[in-house]
Design brief:
globular
Length: 87
Amino acid sequence: MKYKRIQVNREEMFSLGVEETSGQFYVSLPVSSGFADYEEYYAIDGHMFERFQNDLASAVQFVNRCRRRELDELLMEKPGWNRGSAI
């Protein structure tokens, strides 16, 4: 998969982008395990992508649900046994 960031929010620690091969929009957030730091990518549709670009509160609410692992069904790549915790 080839992820392309479109918008980065450093304060709230998430980014919006598109996976270039499939055209799938995503929200990503940093994660840390005892072995490595990496990003988790959550699939969103085009309407959510546009809304999150213009409505920070809505985006942060979604990202916080991802951090609490409430939206794992949207993960674009399933984590391994040593899944990290959101930063």
